[in-house]
Amino acid sequence: MEIKDVFEESKQKMEKTVDGLQKEYLRIRAGRANPTILDRVMVDYYGTPTPINQMASVSVTEARTLTIQPWDAGVIQNIEKAINKADLGINPQTEGKTIRLTFPALTEDRRIGIVKDIKKYAEEARVAVRAIRRDAIDKLKKMEKKSEITEDNLRDSENKIQKQKEK
Question: Which of 12, 101, 111, 163 has the most CB atoms around it within 10 Å of its CB?
Answer without folding.
Answer: 101
